[in-house]
Amino acid sequence: MTDDPMAGLAHSEAHYFNSYNHHGIHEEMLKDEVRTRSYRDSIYQNGHLFKDKVVLDVGCGTSILSMFATLPKPSWPPPRAFLDSNAGAKHVIGVDMSTIIEKAKEIVEVNGMSDKITLLQGKMEEVVLPFPQVDIIISEWMGYFLLYESMLDTVLFARDKYLAPGGLIFPDKATIYMAGIEDGDYKEEKIGFWDNVWGFDYTPLKHTALTEPLVDTVEMKAVVTDPAPVFNIDLYTVKKEDLAFSSQFSLNVRRNDFVHAIIAWFDIEFTACHKPIKFSTGPHTKYTHWKQTVFYIHDVLTVETGEKIVGQLTNKPNEKNPRDLDIAISYKLETEDPHRVASGAGHYKM
Ligand code: SAH
Fold first, then answer.
1. Do 75 and 129 reside in the same domain of the chain?
2. Which domain holds residue 94?
3. Where do the Protein arginine N-methyltransferase domain residues begin and end (predicted)?
4. 9 lines ligand 1 (CB under 6 A)
5. Which residue among 22, 151, 157 has the greatest number of ligand 1 atoms within 8 angstroms of its CB, and so is best to mutate?
6. Entry pTM
């Protein structure tokens, strides 16, 4: 017998949860203004939905969302009266496997919310909740490229096991978008580099480099095509199996330019809100810690206004480590000019 909650976990699982032990990763998320403010607004602007409800915070981390749900009041520090006014949820249960939950307990305590928030350390899939059902699930589960780390599986598990009929999920919609970008300089620096390393042919590493999507901020001026939605998730109805998917895309070229990479990002919506709240992680809007995901393609496409890059995006969890993703992108430039016809396919791992 051991008290170590990580004992018995697969190495990759322990690695995943351990990465959330340190305060640094939580600092990054808490400082992500777009992310944290959207969650806060979705709760504070909808006190009527949270009042007297039982709320489950899936993967509560430092318990920020649990505390929002307890106190729907848009000011900080909260006036003492509010702490006592029962303005928020009847009770919030926060669950996290990571040891950060020990600090979350202290944070809840020093903010005077211990009677309203119950924090449990353990895997969502294994813990025993003090309530058989919850009225609302809140969770910040999104990874790079939306689905990296596959924490959504855990939210779906909690939904199916605990959400009362007619219960709400915050957020409840997610959409992945794609677009083509001009990125000659950086592609040369990251990919072309391997063609000649101190006079040697390093192309075996070039192929490896090409399979690795880059998480980075893309400037809006690099975007050459219109964005196109490629995958939609409705959290009320989606099933785990649906997260392995294949979708067609068609990217409308906006200007004469070159295309070196396809990028992806996602938007998130809280549609249960009185006034819908959404945020985007795209290149056209404010920075988030998710940045964008860049998939370099093998060719350089020479594109003209009005042409289309069509293709298919396929995503599935890796068989060995289901928190990783195997992604394939095939593409074809639709052009009347036979000299610029190009097509190909890339396989990526993240
Ligand atoms: N809700 C917090 C933290 C989000 S990060 C915030 O918004 O700041 C996601 C958290 O979910 C991490 O702390 C991670 O440890 C936890 N988590 C992921 N999968 C889990 C699972 N299956 N069981 C319990 N906790 C999980």
1. yes
2. 11-140
3. 172-334
4. no
5. 151
6. 0.94
